[in-house]
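Training component of the fellowship. As part of building independent skills, the fellow (R.M.) carried out the full modelling exercise for a liganded target. The chosen ligand was LLP. The inputs are recorded below so that the supervisory panel can assess the work.
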Amino acid sequence: MAQVVKGSFPVEKFVKVQTPFYYYDVDLLNQTLDLVKKESSANNVEVHYAVKANANPKVLSIIASKGFGADCVSGNEVKAAVEAGFPASKIVFAGVGKTDPEINLALEYNIFCFNAESIPELEVINELAAAKGKVANIELRVNPNVDAHTHHYITTGLNENKFGFNMDDLESVVKMIAGMKNLKLIGLHFHIGSQITDLSSFENLCVRVNDLQEKFESWGVKLENINIGGGLGINYEHPNHMPIADFESYFRLFAKHLKLRAGQTMHCEPGRSLVAQCGSLITKVTYVKKGKEKQFAIVDAGMTDLIRPALYDAYHRIENISSDADEEKYDVVGPICESSDVFDKEILLNGTKRGDYLAIRSAGAYGEIMASGYNLRRLPQGYLSTEF
Ligand code: LLP
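Fellow's submitted model of the complex:
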């Protein structure tokens, strides 16, 4: 019999819910969050969970219960974060295209700060804050032109990307803000990309931030906060061996290389690294179809439930959690009428038959939240392990 290390799932209890669904391992989520809490507190770092990675209300409220802040990119995310129990005073709001209603909502909640990305946005926030008689805290999102060495769709910190202010424009922006009565500049914000596994990219970011800090000092501007964004990657190949990202090295790197000034606080915005490994997409095999040279496991989940393989060619480990039979090769495909609706090709799975459950692993981040209703499919539901 093949010896395959697989995740542990209460498969016999899965009959009570409809597949496909997202399964969130609460123990692993808690262990991950507790480690992040410990390491961030030890290094005096404020953590804002990037809600975009997973906004399932049950997951959000677990994260909120640990005392983290939230990083939001839409008015609805700000609302969801507040409803899940994140204090508004720990919410940061980023995004290149914040609309007036979204800005107004955030002003009403008195969120911690707006991570602003352009001059016209600053003008609008100033105007809307003035109308409410408020002063909005602003961090300038700076495009540091640091290569994150990750997929080109999720690299954000290069000059060619749409995000943030260009470093050359900062001096004039700072002067402009000084004349805006309803804005208070409280810091700088950076984010170089996502799924970063080469930590030296973060070291390069620190070098860039340190240089910029000197410039701000020469302009006589004091910054209270340095927000270095998110981006820490996870191990998609080995979710069972590496269930928790290397947060110790991550925080140690910043403690060593980021030169904070007296009274300054470092902030960060991890998304994926907090929630990816605790989540699996559970799907049932509808048919096993034998082709001439291949066999297909046709499952009831599709790219509408987890789009990462189709969109980014992303790898997710797949396990047959119903079978211990000898391994065979399969293409695991969904039912959607698109040829990109393939989870993986030519992979080894324990001998698979109709009705078996497959777990598509490391899907807790950018999984459920990116689901769509294409082909009029029902959106996948998310369940905590404690619900079984
Ligand atoms: N902060 C900002 C400003 C961001 O743009 C992002 C992610 C984060 C924080 C969180 O980054 P994380 O720690 O999760 O890497 N859908 C893609 C990922 C898009 C990430 C967008 N920004 C995927 O499935 O890989």
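The panel noted the following from the submitted structure. Residues 50, 52-53, 71, 94, 154, 156, 191, 194-195, 229-232, 269-273, 308, 312, 365-366 surround LLP (CB under 6 Å). The first helix runs from residue 26 to 42.
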